[in-house]
Specification:
Length: 110
């Protein structure tokens, strides 16, 4: 499983902030469940688990945006049977509500 998390940094005081508010913590992706399925599988709900995810997060599968249900710790979406018709590695991209990349992962169709 390959994860790439955007903005890998820890909470720190925002030096440009007069109020001393903490900067938002970076999102971290840690688990894709399931992480793979055999070719020919039906539509399947997949969950990406992590930390500091945007509650309005969106997901792209091979650059095609998907409807998703998100919380601060996970985002769920469907990988379609058509995408799993043959052996492939699908690129999963998690975006915040502004469209910024929070992280990426890969999903194996075996």
């Amino acid at each position: 499983m390959v994860f790439r998390n955007a903005n890998q940094r820890t909470d720190q005081l925002n030096p440009g902030s007069a109020s001393g508010q903490q900067a938002a913590a970076a999102a971290v992706l840690s688990i894709v469940d399931p992480e793979s399925l055999p070719a020919g599988s039906p539509d399947t709900v997949v969950k990406i688990v992590g930390e500091n995810l945007a509650t309005a997060a969106k997901v792209k599968v091979n650059d095609v945006e998907r409807a998703a249900a998100a919380t601060a710790t996970d985002v769920s979406f469907t990988i379609t049977a058509a995408e799993m018709a043959a052996t492939a590695t699908l690129k999963l991209t998690v975006l915040d509500n502004a469209g910024n990349v929070m992280g990426t992962a890969e999903f194996a169709v075996t």
